[in-house]
Amino acid sequence: MQTPYAVVAQSLSKSVVSHDTTIQILTDLNLAVANGERLAIIGSSGSGKSTLLGLLAGLDTASSGNVLIAGQDISQLDEDGRAAIRAKHMGFVFQSFQLLGALTALENVMLPLQLAGQTDAQAIATSALARVGLASRVTHYPKQLSGGEQQRVAIARAFAAKPSILFADEPTGNLDIATGEAIINLLFDLNTQNGTTLVLVTHDMQLASRCQRVLNLQNGQLKEIALNTQTVADSLGAH
């Protein structure tokens, strides 16, 4: 039986030791993200948003608790097992684009498809780049592309494998307002077209308010807040 939830966190805690001091980042946190939902996670700098995203995506391991992806508990898997789940279910968009400088736009999008054994990786990557408006830039290297174009390549790469879940960490953080708005429109359009579950970590209040749900991470816990821009702004305070 298929689970109605794409991502579930159960009693998730994360602590790190620094200079003989234990720092508690997340404490007994619970979260359920429905299939196809658009969720924004906001919070002040240092609140643990990126840490939480890393745990949900299996890029890091929790001190205690469980994470379920499409009903499967990834907390019980080793790194190879978590990598297989990521390849099957997840796509990623980061603030810093994470493109390989020695590869063209096309090659950057093709790479994860090739690693997953896709025989038609070039055709899929070409189509994905066309969908984000970069059909004429496929042979360009990242240094030849603007920030907005690089983020479009990253989005094409993320969606090319048709992930059921997309994790985005500050996807507009390195972009100007106009470019950021275009990128967000693209992200939401592709999310709607593909039925992809979207989990966003952001400081962008306009972006957060466009999601179906907004959660504020504070003192290691998530709190749901009302869905309007002013309330989101108030929750972030001066950040």
Describe this structure as you would to a colleague.
By secondary structure, the protein is of the alpha/beta class. The chain is 36% helix and 28% strand. The protein contains 8 helices and 10 strands. It has helices at residues 49-56, 79-89, 105-115, 121-131, 147-160, 177-194, 205-209, 229-236, and strands at residues 5-18, 21-34, 38-42, 64-69, 72-73, 90-94, 165-169, 197-201, 213-218, 221-225. It has a 6-stranded mixed β-sheet with strand order 6-7-8-3-9-10, with helices on both faces. A 4-stranded antiparallel β-sheet has the order 2-1-4-5, covered by helices on one side. Helix 4 (121-131) crosses helix 5 and helix 5 runs parallel beside helix 6 (177-194). The mean pLDDT is 90.
Could you give a short description of this structure?
Helices cover 36% and strands 28% of the residues. By secondary structure, the chain is an alpha/beta fold.
Descriptive key words:
239 residues; globular; 4-stranded antiparallel beta sheet; 6-stranded mixed beta sheet; 10 strands; alpha/beta
Q: How many angstroms does the end-to-end distance come to?
A: 42 Å
Give the oligomeric state.
Answer: single chain
Order of helices and strands: EEEHEEHEHHHEHEHEEH
Uncertain residue ranges: none
- Residues in β-strands, percent: 25-35%
Query: Major sheet, described briefly?
Result: 6 strands, mixed
Q: What integer value in Å does the Rg equal? A: 18 Å
How many helical stretches? 8
Structural class: alpha/beta
By DSSP, the count of extended strands is 10
Q: Roughly how much helix do the residues carry, as a percent range?
A: 25-40%
Mean pLDDT: 90
Spatial shape: globular
Lateral arrangement of strands in the main beta sheet = 6-7-8-3-9-10
